[in-house]
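Minutes, project huddle
Topic: does the predicted pose make sense with adenosine-5'-triphosphate bound?
PN asked that the exact inputs be recorded in the minutes so nobody has to dig through chat later. Recorded below.
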Amino acid sequence: MSLRYAGRVGTGMNDALLASLRKRLTPLVRPATPLGRQPSGSREGAHWVEPRLVVEVAFTEWTRDGILRHPTLVGLREAKTPREVRREDPMNVAGVVLTNADRVLYPEQGLTKRDLARYYEVVAPLMLPHVADRPLSLVRCPAGTGKACFFQKHWGGRLPEAVDTVAIRERGSQTKPYTVIRDAAGLVSLVQHGVLEFHLWGARADNVEAPDRMVFDLDPAPVVSWERVRAGARALRALLEDVGLESWIKTTGGKGIHVVVPIARRSTWEEVSGFARALAERMAREAPGEYLARASKAARKGKIFVDWLRNTRGATAVAPWSSRARPTAPVSAPIAWEELDRLTSGDQFHVADVPALISRRTRDPWRGMLASKQRLTRSMTARLEA
Ligand code: ATP
Ligand code: MN
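Predicted holo structure (tokens), as shared on screen:
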């Protein structure tokens, strides 16, 4: 373990802090620098002390010589010992080396690639149980929002170390490589490659013919009030409960809400999409002025489209905690059903709000989903059709 000179700080100290620092430092005074030789950039006649105390310093960046630029003293860090101090590598997040880390991806928010990578590092423990080991489709915007983006189903080019692919059969007998990740390094690697949105299959990579998730996407026509969208989510939940299925809810980061239903891997895509369609049609039948089960934009007039087509083989929905490629950097945020009454829009939560949202909560509202063992049966579909 060695010491490195990082500069000197002359601001951020009030009289009280100065007095207490003097008291702490005086007994630690030593005649010469503990760094071996006088570091360049240090002041002639400086008072050196034993390296025992740790302080927190705010600064704007490292200079090329490894010195803090614009340092301000924040305070003593009593709980930390000098041995624990590491020089953070600002180019490395979750073990992934970022290039162009300061590139601004969300100009309205001033969010850089590094900021987004750190966002995913923070949400990884909540996000990965729902995202790891599943085929992904990606929205990539290498130059950020407002610039060219493309929706990518098949990974092309070199694979980063933390990213895998799974070959999936498509129309005919062709197979195509779909992106799969397993950990936080995978999330960050994809951010490094310009990914702003993660979209999921409703099946896991080890058996893509055995769906384990259904997603109902409530897509309101522009005139539909937010209260009607919330009512739609509640109605959907109630119908699912009637047939014996528990559901979870998230914002989309856009205009609507997604209702998610985990199921045991016992059903085919045909059975799953058949159930999803029967549910959407049942909603439309019970309240034809409110809901519609057909994708037609022309027929949507003033209604909410209950998009069940997300539950067909190959369809995707945005992942929980994914950022969206929209100017305000919204995210698709899992919430508890009890929070729905207070939810004000589909894009209420943003990349910048999430650390506070997570630390405010005492538990993950989606935790129960992972333990769910519920099964989809044919009689459930039959009941909706009756
Ligand atoms: P909102 O609440 O605003 O409707 P959403 O996530 O439900 O949000 P979109 O972002 O419009 O809606 O749609 C996302 C889905 O549409 C993706 O999961 C994907 O299946 C599909 N999709 C999105 N962009 C493309 C694209 N460029 N090409 C093909 N499919 C796309
Ligand atoms: Mn939608």
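Observations noted during the meeting:
- The helical segments are 15-25, 113-131, 184-192, 226-242, 269-286, 354-360, 367-371, 378-385.
- The pocket of adenosine-5'-triphosphate (ligand 1) is lined by residues 151, 199, 217, 219, 252, 254-256, 315-318, 346 (CB under 6 Å).
No decisions taken; revisit at the next huddle.
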